[in-house]
Amino acid sequence: MASGSIFNISRYAVHDGPGIRTTVFLKGCPLRCWWCHNPEGVSQERSLMFFEYKCILCKTCAGVCPAGAFSFANNLHHLDRTSCNNCGLCSETCPTEALSHAGRMIAVTELMQEIEKDVLLYDNSGGGVTFSGGEPLLQHLFLNEALTECKNRDLRTVLDTSGYASEAVLSSVLDRVDVILYDLKLADEEEHRKYTGVSNNPIKENLRMLADRGRGRDVILRFPVIPGITDTQKNVDALVEFISTLKGINEIDLLLFHDVSEKYHRLGMEYQMPVRQAPAPSKIKYIKERFESIGLYVKT
Ligand code: SF4
Ligand code: SF4
After folding, report:
1. Contacts of 131 (CB under 8 A, 6+ apart)
2. How many domains would you assign to the chain?
3. Same domain, 279 and 187
4. How far is the CA of 103 from the centre of ligand 2 (A)?
5. Is 67's C-beta closer than 6 angstroms to any atom of ligand 2?
6. Taking a C-beta distance cutoff of 8 angstroms, is the pair 31, 164 a contact?
7. Domain boundary residue, one of 84, 102, 120
8. What residue's CA is closest to ligand 1, atom 2?
9. 108 with 214, same domain?
């Protein structure tokens, strides 16, 4: 059976599809959204995180690191990520878990054992299993096997996707996916490239393909409300126009921006967001009304 790279299994999830769900977060994403709330899921490799407040300056990490990536001066801990080869020894030996790696390989058989622990919850709530990320379609062989095993157990499945994949890859999973959480961010291609690193053409084409194949009713759109980037009148109007041409889609969830700069700091990643404040209530109201004007049920 296939193995895949995951960075979390979240139990009792209530925002990742209908009912109470187990959400499996697959590692790796082809997009680089400036506001990404799960930066530890971007790389397909495991990601080293440093929690400064947990460090007791014991220097155990410096003793085990084969790359000499750690140094200490003036009671401060310094990690040189450019020399790190991701061997994992530091996080295995750090006594306080100040160092920790996000991400591990898991076989489908082990994953299913984890999922089966929650089956009673699904039965009582109409829930099931959600595959999220990262972009789960990036590991489509692993995803396909996991979905097949879910369906062999009559579990209801949700795919949480950016839609950025080939039509063939997306099509390959559809018969075992009950609900598709589908991100729509920016209507303009140049802006999409600027803020996510990729074109939005495959995303739009795949969404149209889902609608044309009669799967629009299974799609719940997700719109990240990012101040100054996605929440502009121009973008919202263009998305409203695009969505109104698609058959069967009747729900959109608004995902409100919040500042996750601390997560980026722990990972040694640059946080590119120029603003840190949450979207204004008046903006959220405007966006909600615009999407409602084309008959969408809008959840915030
Ligand atoms: S092993 Fe952990 S607690 Fe000790 S110095 Fe390194 S990071 Fe800090
Ligand atoms: S993962 Fe390995 S190479 Fe990287 S800092 Fe930790 S011990 Fe050093």
Report:
1. 23, 24, 26, 143, 146, 147, 157, 158, 159, 160
2. 2
3. yes
4. 15
5. yes
6. yes
7. 102
8. 94
9. yes
**Going by CA atoms, what residue is nearest to atom 3 of ligand 2?**
84
Structural domain boundaries, residue 267: 3-44+103-299
Atom number of ligand 2 nearest to Cα 64:
7
Say if ligand 2 is within 6 A of residue 86 CB.
yes
For residue 75, what is the domain's CATH number? Answer: 3.30.70.20
Given 85, 102, 119, which residue is the final one in a domain? 102
Ligand 1 centroid, distance to 262 Cα (angstroms): 19
Q: How confident is the model at residue 1 (pLDDT cuts 50, 70, 90)?
A: confident
- How many C-beta neighbours within 10 Å does residue 147 have? 24
pTM of the model: 0.95
Site to substitute for ligand 2 among 89, 91, 94, 99, most atoms within 8 A of C-beta: 89
Ligand 2 pocket, residue 184 CB under 6 Å: no
* 231 and 194 belong to one structural domain: yes
**Domain co-membership, 131 together with 147:** yes
What's the CATH number where 175 sits?
Answer: 3.20.20.70
Tell me: do 130 and 199 sit in the same domain.
yes
Tens digits of residue pLDDT in 29-55: 999 999 999 999 999 999 999 999 999
Residues 130-143 have pLDDT tens digits of 999 999 999 999 99
Residues 174-209 as b or e (16 or more Cβ within 10 Å = b): eebbbbbbbbbbbbeeebbeebbebebebbbebbeb
Domain shared by 125 and 272, yes or no? yes
pLDDT tens for each residue of 199-244: 999 999 999 999 999 999 999 999 999 999 999 999 999 999 999 9
Closest by Cα among 156, 155, 150, 158 to 222: 158
